[in-house]
Design goal:
By secondary structure, the chain is mainly alpha-helical. It has one domain. Helix 1 packs parallel to helix 2. Helix content is 43%, strand content 6%.
């Protein structure tokens, strides 16, 4: 079975430590990290340029049980889902992460069910 992981585009304006905490709190099975600023996400926090924050991020990941499954800004195939929080919403990162994992689980259940029906 495929794991459900949290992509950095889901919570693009969330500080890295809050992002890791949201992934853990929502029950994701891994996470991706943005390592470079994207034109699409101008409020990204350069955690690699801050030595103290970089150490904190490494420590948080090591203690979280999360596996880092993607980096930079690429998408894994054959299936990649993104659930970006709408701008100007009042969701905190942990709440949106929970909605994203629930939506992803629903989608995957329906997706694989439809493929099974198509093959039979």
């Amino acid at each position: 079975m495929n794991r459900i992981t949290l992509a950095p585009t889901t919570l693009p304006n969330t500080p890295p430590l809050d992002y890791i905490e949201a992934a853990v709190g929502a029950g994701f099975e891994g996470l991706g990290l943005r390592l470079h600023k994207s034109p699409a996400y101008p409020n990204w926090i350069d955690w690699l340029g801050d030595a103290a924050l970089k150490r904190e991020v490494k420590t948080a990941i090591a203690g979280s049980g999360q596996e880092v499954v993607e980096s930079l800004s690429y998408y894994l195939l054959p299936l990649s889902l993104e659930w970006p929080a709408a701008r100007d919403t009042n969701y905190v990162a942990a709440e949106w992460a929970k909605q994203a994992i629930e939506g992803t689980r629903r989608f995957l259940t329906e997706y694989y069910a439809s493929r099974a029906v198509a093959r039979s």
